[in-house]
Amino acid sequence: METNLTALSVKKILIVEDDLIIALSTEKMVEKIGHDVIDRVTTGEQAIDVALKEKPDLILMDIRLAGKLDGIDATKKIKSEMDDIKIVYLTGNTDPAYRERANGTGYEAYLIKPITYKDLEKIIS
């Protein structure tokens, strides 16, 4: 786990994940920690729309997504409109090229799946 801060104080969380089982598991962990999931979406395009409309405190962003935009491209677009938005990448991909692309996006943490409750709790508590 790589993180730029020890913990975020958040309330509204958007989950961007195209695997339904992982999305539901992540949602349950977030709720158990005591925060609200405002939506679960499966594409970068949906992430942009929901983020700009709902203004979440934090986005849990998968990198490889259904649709034309991956999580890194979606993050860049969201951050161009909402510079102070917090992004935590959740990815099963350990390819260094993705990590390098993500480095320029100002993310808060980069977690490798499968994530654990403790990992998530440290970041969003």
Would you identify the CATH architecture? 3-Layer(aba) Sandwich
CATH C-level class is Alpha Beta
Number of helical stretches of at least 4 residues: 5
Largest sheet: 6 strands, mixed
Tell me the strand percentage band: 15-25%
CATH superfamily: Response regulator
Order of helices and strands: EEHEHEHEHEH
Terminal-residue CA separation: 16 Å
How many distinct folded domains?
Answer: 1
Molecular shape: globular
Radius of gyration: 13 Å
Helix proportion: 40-55%
User: Can you tell me the CATH topology?
Assistant: Rossmann fold
Low-confidence stretches: none
Topology at a glance:
Layout: E1 2-3, E2 12-16, H1 20-33, E3 36-41, H2 44-54, E4 58-62, H3 71-81, E5 86-91, H4 96-102, E6 109-112, H5 117-124
Parallel strand pairs: 2-3, 2-4, 4-5, 5-6
Antiparallel strand pairs: 1-6
Give structural notes.
The protein is an alpha/beta fold. The chain has a single domain, classed as 3-Layer(aba) Sandwich (Rossmann fold). The chain contains five helices and six strands, in the order ββαβαβαβαβα. A six-stranded mixed sheet has the order 1-6-5-4-2-3, sandwiched between helices. α2 runs parallel beside α3 (71-81). The longest helix has 14 residues, at 20-33. The two termini are 16 Å apart. 37% of the residues are buried.
Keywords:
single chain; 125 residues; alpha/beta; Rossmann fold; six-stranded mixed sheet; 5 helices; globular
